[in-house]
Write a structure and sequence with these properties.
By secondary structure, this protein is mainly beta. The chain folds into two domains: 52 residues, no CATH class; 61 residues, SH3 type barrels (Roll), CATH 2.30.30. 3% of the residues lie in helices and 24% in strands. It has one helix and five strands; from the N terminus they run H-E-E-E-E-E. It has a five-stranded antiparallel sheet, with no helix packed on it. The protein is globular. The N and C termini lie far apart (79 Å).
């Protein structure tokens, strides 16, 4: 029986799964969420390559769970587009929120000042330096007819 592994022809079940119940390719190492990594670790914390030496970079953990990264992706070229922006309020009161949001049509962007026309017709005038995040968004869906 050439070609069979030595040891009676039986294969170790742990060897076929990568050495146990942990899956090093999974983002959490195959562990249930909220459990600590066993001692010895997977070697990924220090920036080492994953087991197997495939050359893939180690998986990175998200920046913050449940909170997207804030990026401004709009500019003066987007005048006329519908946008969603998050911005710092100029002088928030004590205990009041420090940021606000506006969704609407970008009507003007001159000398570092944006004007956004909201659905109700009001205008939000925002200083470019107060932008925290912004992106273009698709037009709103058509209004439904009242029943």
């Amino acid at each position: 029986m050439s070609g069979e592994p030595t040891g009676g022809g039986q294969q170790d079940p742990a060897a076929s799964t990568g050495g146990g119940s942990e899956d090093p390719a999974a983002p959490d190492g195959g562990r249930p969420e909220g459990t600590a990594e066993p001692t010895g670790g997977s070697g990924l914390e220090g920036g080492a390559e994953p087991a197997g030496g495939s050359g893939d970079a180690p998986r990175r953990r998200p920046l913050a769970r449940g909170r997207p990264r804030m990026v401004v992706r709009i500019g003066p070229d987007d005048v006329g587009e519908r946008v969603s922006v998050r911005f710092r309020l100029p002088e928030p009161e004590a205990g009041a929120p420090t940021e606000s949001e506006a969704v609407g049509w970008l009507r003007d962007w001159r000398e570092g000042v944006l004007t956004i026309e909201r659905r109700d017709g009001s205008h939000a005038v925002i200083d470019e330096g107060d932008l925290v995040a912004g992106r273009t968004v698709p037009p709103p869906p058509p209004r439904r007819r009242p029943r």
